[in-house]
Amino acid sequence: MSKFTRYFKGVGEEAKRVRWPNQKTLWKAVGIVLVISIVTALFIALFDYLTVQIMRAFDSAMPTSSSGSSSSSSGAAAMLVDLLKGGRF
Question: In the chain, what percentage of residues exceed pLDDT 70?
Answer without folding.
Answer: 83
